[in-house]
Write a structure and sequence with these properties.
With 205 residues, the protein is an all-alpha fold. The protein has one domain. 72% of the residues lie in helices and 0% in strands. It is globular, with a radius of gyration of 18 Å. It starts with a helix and ends with a helix. The mean pLDDT is 91.
Length: 205
Amino acid sequence: MTNLLFSNPLAFFIIFPGLLLSITVHEFAHAFTADKLGDPTPRFQGRITLDPRAHLDPLGVIMILLTRFGWGKPVEFDSYNLKNPQRDTALIALAGPVSNLIIALLISLFLRAELLPQLWVMTGLFQVMVINVVLAIFNLVPVHPLDGSKILMSFLPAEQAIEYESFMHRYGMFVLIALIIPWNGVSPVSSLIWPVVSFIVDFLI
């Protein structure tokens, strides 16, 4: 991302804020959904807001600048406050990726309308749209601490869900790192999600 700042500063000042906004909306969606489903934990922690300061992790932002890969503050919720813990946990986890797909859809509609003649603006917005699709699909990978792990766990029988959760809490981060690290120039997770990302982007444009 820092390379983009020096090579194309105009695009940087669209893509970087767009990425921070996308992470903010993603985490807000988790918090808002948990609150609506009966858990006040996110509200008590000040997460029911679109203020980026409530959702951005300083280290995660620095990593975005250095590597283009970062993260926000995870939203905490207490499943004991939910009416249907299994279903509601899946809905809370799904809310984040869905919010990114909605952002991507709105940007695609804006791009289709061709309201801005400046090519660099349209290109920057297109990149933000792609980033949101990537965020959505990447977070659906069923590996802790990604949202997909909570979604998958909600569909597993109780015994398998407990075993899966135990394994992921111990080894999930190592599995995720192994998926992110490039092998022969391409990371396994890119090979996994990119066909889906490409399909959605092609559909949107």
